[in-house]
Automatic annotation (TrEMBL):
Family annotation (InterPro entries): AAA+_ATPase, ABC_transp_ATP-bind, ABC_transporter-like_ATP-bd, ABC_transporter-like_CS, P-loop_NTPase
Protein keywords: ATP-binding, Nucleotide-binding, Transport
Domain ABC transporter: from-to ranges: 2-239
PANTHER family: D,D-DIPEPTIDE TRANSPORT ATP-BINDING PROTEIN DDPF-RELATED, TRANSPORT ATP-BINDING PROTEIN
Recorded superkingdom: Bacteria
CDD domains recorded: ABC_NikE_OppD_transporters
A single GO molecular function term of this UniProt record: ATP hydrolysis activity
Protein name per its UniProtKB record: ABC transporter ATP-binding protein
GO biological process, one term: transmembrane transport
UniProt similarity note: Belongs to the ABC transporter superfamily.
SUPFAM superfamilies tied to this protein: P-loop containing nucleoside triphosphate hydrolases
Amino acid sequence: MIEIESVSVDFHTKLRTVRALKDVSLSVPQGTVFGLVGESGSGKTTLLRAMMGLTAVSSGGVKIAGEAVRQNPPLAFRRRVQMVMQDCYASLNPAHTVDQIIGEPLAIHRFDNPEKRILQALKDVGLGPEHRFRFPHQLSGGQRQRVAIARCLAIEPQVMLLDEPTSALDVSIQAEIVNLVMRLQQQKGLTLFIISHDLPLVTHMCDRLAIMRKGMVREVITSQDLIERKVEDDYTKVLLSASL
């Protein structure tokens, strides 16, 4: 479902060029959950933005569902691939109600029966109809993240990209969102690509994961390999020790 082939990304300033991604290659089968782990500044979000066509790649390429990703991708691509941002409050329009937030992509993609789809999307993420006409500031952090997920689910994507989906939430709420995402992935057969700095979280959620540092993929392993500590890269070993 996702093919990342030798992707490099450069950012240019007046004084120098910074290579944020260096020859990154990854493959994610349809219907699986893939995790990308690394410390802050390792290039995780840059890769996610390249996968959405929000950041230009300097070399290499990304294909999702067999279609090459380019900047300003067509509407059909935006329906198939949806992204949940790290800051669930900043990603929701504070002047819009939940109804408007979920209804806007439905209108853009010209779905019929929008009211039914909005109610179903809310139900899918564990929110009732009483939340429909509330504004983001009237919701808790966990509820806002659920709305962000519902907005994505409403247009029936094939792929969801999640950028640190629980980092802005209290520990007590993190487990609820993790369980929600895993349940929805199984029910709807979604392909999930999750980035995080939380190694235990990604190990729990993902089938396979990649370890990233300084714009490079150091190692790709299964979650079971990580649990059994069957890792080869020295940086992965350090990261694993630090997470215990």
